[in-house]
């Protein structure tokens, strides 16, 4: 396996590809030297404020509802440590490793900006944790998506202090102190302002948004592949995807999806077999004919979400923040509303794409609508059930995706004695989107499994170059038509092909011209 190039932190905004490389593929990080100089210069501003007898929030005061409480210099080390220990209050199952690594990376980028007031050693320690493969245990619940992803980020900071639990590079659950000692990393002792700087950020929800966009880019190509297999095997027409028809409604996502469908159905003997005046059907059902409109809407939603993600990746989130001219100012930039809203927006589109996919699957199994295929694509009708219950699985997932599409960002529960009286719930929006994306991959896999069997059952008619190649890929993990057999392993195997991107890749490789 080729070693990934280091991702440079602190020189410019991170790209989505940088986040995926570090979070998912363990790319190392390196710190831009000028960033460390910038961090040291800003720290001197904080040191000056720490010596001021007048209170400054986060430097010489308590936090949140206790912001007016002055803290004497000899208690401030304890103040910072207490902040992290008390805020590391997550509960529930462990969050996935890639989510935690994304959280670590994005907080590191904020620290390296020179606008948060931490010392260079803090930046270097966060980079060392990532490069050592040390992943703090972060738990499912604890963030309201305002004042930053407080609890998740506090779990990261706690590990940097040598406290709490982490997963080492091998995945073993160990005390943070032991993992840091083995990696040669000195635990941090936090000083004024640093506790706040480590926990005020939208890093958790943003990291999950970036990963979701990466996965959805592949899944929407796969959705076009699945739709092409359904149109072809159900003897539908590709005429409705013509470029001039799409130009009458110049929605960008729709145009892209229709272009994919044309390419994926090009040179198909099966499509050609019923073209012309002898085809008595006027038009296909919506789930076939309107696939570009539904898939394209999801693409346009993604484009908007990607714009928000890029802006957030270029942001410095902290409170208080040190401005370029050296002021320390409270602000509300930690509020996750921009990210939360697009996370919810994406969940709606994910549910819609899965819903239309399930409808195409259902048509393929119904002899009243599938144009000559056996009921449920069964081998011996009555004895065999074919793919009947695979459709049930898809329907069950789609039903859950509709529930997951209910926005989290419209909810708000006040906290911190009404100081934090409106919150974004962005973390919750991100968590449910991750589950929704997993469900979409499974629904598309069921449609592809169904489409592959339907294509086989059309013999001697042949599939096109692209859909035939996808059908052949499916056949490497799932047998063709025949008597009923244990179906779940085949469904899981095809799901793995979908979620790994293999289906989308092979479809693109077999496009002619």
From TrEMBL:
GO molecular function: histidine ammonia-lyase activity
Localization in the cell: Cytoplasm
Entry-linked InterPro entries: Aromatic_Lyase, Fumarase/histidase_N, HutH, L-Aspartase-like, Phe/His_NH3-lyase_AS
Pathway field: Amino-acid degradation; L-histidine degradation into L-glutamate; N-formimidoyl-L-glutamate from L-histidine: step 1/3
PROSITE patterns per the UniProt record, alphabetical: PAL_HISTIDASE
UniProt xrefs under CDD domains: PAL-HAL (cd00332)
Enzyme class, first EC level, given as a word: lyase
Sections of the chain in a coiled coil: none
PANTHER family from the UniProt entry: HISTIDINE AMMONIA-LYASE
Record protein name field: Histidine ammonia-lyase
Organism (species): Microbacterium aurugineum
